[in-house]
Amino acid sequence: MNKLFTALALALALTSCGSDPINREQGDPRQAAAGMELNWLVARMTDQLMERKSLTTLTEPIAVSSFVDLDTLQDTNWMGQQIEESFIYELNRRGEVVVDFKMTGSIKVTPQGDFVMSRNYRDLSPRLPISRILTGTFSRNGKGILVNARIIDLRTKMVETTAQSLIPQQYLFGANNSFGRASINRGYLMRDSQARPGGHLVNLTP
After folding, report:
1. Does residue 19 belong to any structural domain of this protein?
2. Is residue 126 part of a domain?
3. Which of 128, 138, 159, 199 would staple 190 via disulfide (CB 3.0–4.6 Å)?
């Protein structure tokens, strides 16, 4: 009988280790079409997020923010913004109610083109029906860029679910000049009026 209990305990332990997304075999980004490796990795991270997601939150509106540098939590770049866009795509495909807070609510017609999105807070709605947000950080190591994502309930600040992935170094070649912070000329959506001079509080309300 003791041997049986020992065998069951060992089997459960092995099953637990195998279900850990950090140790799990996710495949190879080279399976993706050329140029789509980052999107492929975001799709795998979305799979991780959905593993522990509660079905009761499926209809609760969610927004996605730019992923930021872990060192400062205030700077992003081309990669952080592209990860944001890819997560919007992946969440929508999985039936999530995604709110794009960069929509202005009007069409700006100019000789340069017709625009409906903006990063200038003055053009955006001051209050939005958002109860959850997907956000995350990135940091560099010797193998590439480590990305951590999480879905947070804005009402309680509790983390609902998380995901993690490594973007291998070979998929970052040719982008070294863009790895730094986003240009200030491109604008920031400020979360805290004290964060930077001239900042603006954006209310994300449930």
Report:
1. no
2. yes
3. 199
Flag whether 134 is in a domain.
Answer: yes
Radius of gyration over alpha carbons of the chain, in Å?
A: 20
Domains of the chain: total: 1
CA dihedral defined by 115, 133, 88, 79, rounded to 10 degrees? 80
Tens of pLDDT, residue by residue over 20-78, are 333 334 556 556 556 677 888 999 999 999 998 877 777 899 999 999 999 999 999 98
CATH assignment of the domain containing 144: 3.40.50
How far is it, in rounded angstroms, from Cα 55 to Cα 67? Answer: 25
- DSSP secondary structure, 83-143, as one string: HHHHHHHHHHHTT--B--TTEEEEEEEETTEEEEE-S-GGGS-SEEE--EEEEEEEEEETT
List beta partners, residue 33. Answer: none
- For residue 172, the enclosing domain spans 28-205
Alpha-carbon distance of 196 to 68, in angstroms, equals 16
Are 74 and 83 spatial neighbours (Cβ–Cβ below 8 Å)? Answer: no
Taking the alpha carbons at both ends of the chain, their separation in whole angstroms is 53
